[in-house]
Amino acid sequence: MKAVAIVGNSDSGKTRLIIALIKELNQRGLKCGVLKKANEEVELDKEGKDSWQFMAAGAEAATVLTPEKIFTIEKKKASQTLLSLALDRFSEVDILLVEGGQKESAFKKIWRLQKAPDFDEKMAPEDLLAVVADESFPVSPGYPVFQAEETSKLADFLLNVLEPLEPLAELKVDGRRVPLNPFVQSMLTETIKGLLRALKGLPENPQKVEIKLKTGEKDEKPERT
After folding, report:
1. Domain 2-41+77-161 has what CATH class?
2. How high does pLDDT run on average in the chain?
3. Which one, of 197, 173, 170, 200, lies nearest residue 185 by Cα?
4. 10 Å Cβ neighbour count for 192?
5. Contact present, 30 and 96 (Cβ < 8 Å)
6. 151-161 and 14-27 are packed helices; what angle lies between their axes, rounded to 10 degrees?
7. What is the pLDDT at residue 37?
8. Are 130 and 145 contacting, i.e. CB atoms less than 8 angstroms apart?
9. How far apart are CA 200 and CA 209, in angstroms?
10. How many angstroms separate the CA atoms of 11 and 128, rounded?
11. Region(s) of the chain under CATH 3.40.50.300
């Protein structure tokens, strides 16, 4: 799965750009997912509905299955981040489009602007890949610039430059993914790399290391009779 965040001010055209990209990528046979970060609380469930009553009663999650869709409402856990949600919920899509998340370091970003004067290098988000605007830039801002209607060119660019989204370190316990923040991922990775350096016969810079631990109790030895 590849992922990119579409960032910009409110009403800058982020949603329209994402819709256009979904249509373009679908035409190419690619499956898309969308993950939106809201700065304010949004109530998607109406008071009085069954699912609302389940949550109000104290359920951790409520899922409604219809003939064509699945709706799930659940309480956010402190450990859940955009990255952990992306990896947990969207592993089957080809490309994930994140709306918002300007301060999320896990994603490369496309900055959606309306006018060229809106560009301010000091305000540019980190990990910026390109700029999408409604008008041409008289002078190059130092990043690739796409016009809002150049969806096909932007799709080509993203598919070429984006790397698959993978965590630096991944932890699963009994098949369940345990979210790790960037600091813990880095610490765990450096610790394991340090241990590997003490072993002989291994590549100097391995690209992928897998460790599997079995922590169940040992079988008891049969008693002698």
Report:
1. alpha beta
2. 85
3. 170
4. 14
5. no
6. 80
7. 86
8. yes
9. 15
10. 20
11. 2-41+77-161
Q: Are 93 and 100 in contact (CB under 8 A)?
A: no
The angle at the Cα of 183, spanning 178 to 187, to the nearest 5 degrees, equals 90
Average pLDDT of 180-198? 80
The span from the CA of 60 to the CA of 54, in Å, is: 9
Structure tokens at 225: 């009779």
DSSP state, residue 164? B
Of 3, 69, 62, nearest to 37 by C-alpha is: 3
pLDDT tens, position by position, 11-55: 899 999 999 999 999 999 999 999 998 776 666 677 878 888 888
Say whether pLDDT at 221 is over 70.
Answer: no
Q: How far is the C-alpha of 36 from the C-alpha of 99, rounded, in Å? A: 5
pTM for this predicted structure: 0.72
The rounded distance, in Å, linking the Cα atoms of 50 and 53 is 5
- Inter-residue contact 100 to 38 (CB < 8 Å): yes
Candidates 144, 143, 98, 137; CA nearest to 118 is 137
User: H-helix or E-strand containing 189?
Assistant: helix 182-197
Give per-residue pLDDT as tens, 64-102: 898 998 888 888 887 778 887 888 888 889 999 999 988
